[in-house]
Specification:
CATH architecture of the largest domain in chain A: 3-Layer(aba) Sandwich
Oligomer: heterodimer
Strand order of the largest sheet of chain A: 7-8-9-3-10-11
Strand content of chain B: under 5%
Number of domains of chain B: 1
Largest interface: A-B, 25 and 19 residues
CATH architecture of chain B: Orthogonal Bundle
Helix content of chain A: 10-25%
Largest sheet of chain A: 6 strands, mixed
Order of helices and strands of chain A: EEEHEEEEHHHEHEHEEHHEEEEEEEEHEE
Shape of chain A: globular
CATH topology of chain B: MetI-like fold
Shape of chain B: globular
Structural class of chain B: mainly alpha
Distance between the termini of chain B: 43 Å
Number of strands of chain A: 21
Strand content of chain A: 35-45%
Structural class of chain A: alpha+beta
Number of helices of chain A: 9
Chain lengths: 353, 219
């Protein structure tokens, strides 16, 4: 396990990174906007950047301990690092690149076969594609038998198709190893595709870290929900708690949410729901968690259309986003200016602070 | 006389290129990669010979390394050796005037090597020395070789500083440029002409050969 304890780094600009993280085996995704300190965090773990204070340890070996004045150089940390750009040595063949971190007799045939790069061994990096370069870079890292693997936006330089392929390569690596893998990304879909555990960072701090699926489904903090792409976040007041459900008031209406978030009646909170979990109501009878709103704008896209809704109530105006595919839009003659009834799925909505 | 001067010129220039290659590469690396106190002074020091007339450079070399010079006195007391009126002095002078060229070439060559490659080497478990030898140096090679060629060319053509420190002793410190000047000054036009042609041809061959080697090995 990779343990980062009270690690601090202050920049001349005044920006401060301050972290407490534990990375277990499996894939942990370090997620956040560009410039929130993710890459610097990897730099500090790998020893390429010196922290100011704190402690970093992998299992029983200490990489950095400000108190003890200890900082192990990068080349003694045995931590693999995949950079955003593949960074293959341009003057060496693919074969020599893979062998670079090994004693040169070692057998790389397994790795080469696993990543299907047998045919590339005698070529130079500039003679192979970006996707192949990134695979070679992963193979090169694994060849040196690292005890942990850090990856900095490893997919960002790749085309969509190659990206999926490389993601499946990485998932296969995960299945075959016990080492902690820490992947930095600012892409929600990458984080969702890869993460066992998710660490959400903002402004140099960890906002929330938890089991990835759980965190995607029910972020506990508003900023996490925003970063993870939850389109609808509405201020609400907690009215009461039932067994496994919370009743909140929003715009003078009561909403039932299946959630066990920590909150008490009277608390101010945020009612969150993804656009995909907002439903169009077409029956005559009133539904649970129903709202009436006006179609303000329809934004079309390949998979689904985004319906932007505006509503009025005695408590003020609100807006809401609903996903609705083209077929249903046509079937129900949804157009700008229409008044529609929508319902929030109680098992998908969540309460956050 | 022709043979002596040619032999000496080649010896002096090769030796000058070797030491300036080492010192210039080290200084270039330092200036390209490190921030340290005295950096601006080092930069100035290795650039000065480019701006000063070679005679002034030679004069400073005498002040520093002459028999009564700041360092020269110590060297003479300890070893009985002096750069003054010695062929080693010519190699020293040739190198000093070539130093700015080598440092500039090396610095540009190292700046062109992305730090990411060095980082990639560190995280693959290779220490600083191995990283320098296996990654930085090969990637900076073309720039360094250009620097070495230009340094050799500058050293083999050096006149003023060589004359100041090593003098013009036929068979001992008289290099090709000095021999050409002397032949011309004493009216031996034919000799001056032959020497000039030989120096031109040799220089041409050296440069073409190195560039050919560079192209055939460089990928």
């Amino acid at each position: 396990m990779l343990k980062i304890h009270q690690l601090t780094k202050q920049f001349a600009s005044g920006f401060v990174i301050s972290l407490d993280i534990e990375v277990e085996s499996g894939i942990t995704v370090l997620f956040g906007r560009s410039g929130c300190g993710k890459t610097t965090t990897l730099g500090m773990i790998s020893g390429l950047i010196d922290p100011d204070r704190g402690r970093i340890a992998l299992d029983d070996s200490v990489f950095f301990d400000a108190g003890a004045g200890l900082s192990l150089p990068s080349y003694e940390r045995e931590v693999g690092y995949i950079f955003q750009q593949p960074s293959l040595f341009p003057h060496l063949t693919v074969d020599a690149n893979i062998r670079y971190g090994t004693d040169h007799q070692s057998d790389i045939s397994d790795l080469v076969a696993r990543f299907e790069i047998d045919s590339l061994l005698s070529r130079y990096p500039r003679e192979i594609s970006g996707g192949q370069q990134q695979r070679v870079s992963l193979a090169r890292s694994l060849a040196s038998n690292p005890r942990a693997l850090l990856m900095d936006e490893p997919f960002s330089a790749l085309d969509a198709g190659v990206r999926t392929q490389f993601q499946s390569d990485l998932l296969r690596v995960k299945e075959q190893t016990e080492m902690p893998i820490l992947v930095v990304t600012h892409s929600i879909s990458e984080a969702f595709a890869l993460a066992d555990r998710l660490i959400v960072m903002d402004e140099g701090h960890v906002v929330e870290s938890y089991d990835a699926l759980e965190l995607f489904a029910r972020p506990r903090k508003r900023v996490t929900a925003e970063l993870l792409g939850v389109q609808n976040l509405m201020p609400c007041r907690v009215k009461s708690r039932l067994d496994g459900a919370i009743i909140v008031e929003f715009q003078g209406l009561d909403f039932v949410v299946d959630d066990d978030a920590r909150c008490e009646p009277g608390d101010s909170a945020w009612l969150g729901i993804r656009a995909v979990d907002v439903r169009l109501v077409v029956t005559d009878s009133r539904r649970e968690n129903e709202l009436v709103a006006t179609v303000h704008r329809i934004i079309r896209s390949v998979v689904t259309n985004q319906i932007h809704l505006n509503g009025h109530s005695p408590d003020g105006d609100f807006s809401l986003v609903m996903d609705l595919d083209e077929h249903h839009c046509k079937q129900h003659h949804i157009k700008q200016g229409d008044t529609v009834r929508v319902a929030l799925k109680r098992n998908k909505a969540f309460i956050c602070q | 006389m022709i043979w002596d001067a040619l032999q000496l010129s080649l010896l002096v220039s090769i030796l000058a290129t070797v030491w300036v290659g080492i010192v210039g590469t080290a200084s270039g690396l330092l200036l390209a990669r490190k921030r340290f106190p005295g950096r601006a002074f080092l930069d100035l020091l290795v650039t000065l010979p480019l701006i000063l007339p070679p005679t002034v450079t030679g004069y400073y070399l005498i002040l520093l390394l002459g028999r009564k010079g700041l360092l020269g006195a110590f060297i003479y007391d300890w070893t009985g050796f002096s750069f003054v009126f010695a062929w080693q002095g010519a190699a020293l002078a040739g190198g000093v005037v070539a130093l700015p060229i080598m440092v500039r070439a090396a610095r540009a060559a190292f700046l062109d090597v992305p730090v990411a490659f060095e980082h990639a080497s560190y995280v693959l478990g290779r220490n600083r020395i191995t990283t320098f030898m296996k990654v930085t140096l090969p990637l900076a090679r073309n720039g360094l070789v250009s620097g070495l060629i230009l340094s050799f060319a500058r050293a083999i053509g050096e006149f003023g500083a060589t004359l100041m420190i090593a003098g013009n002793i036929p068979g001992r410190t008289q290099t090709m440029p000095l021999a050409i000047y002397e032949a011309f000054a004493t009216g031996e036009d034919a000799l001056a002409q032959s020497l000039a042609v030989i120096l031109t041809v040799i220089s041409g061959i050296v440069i073409l050969t190195t560039e050919w080697l560079l192209r055939s090995k460089g990928r």
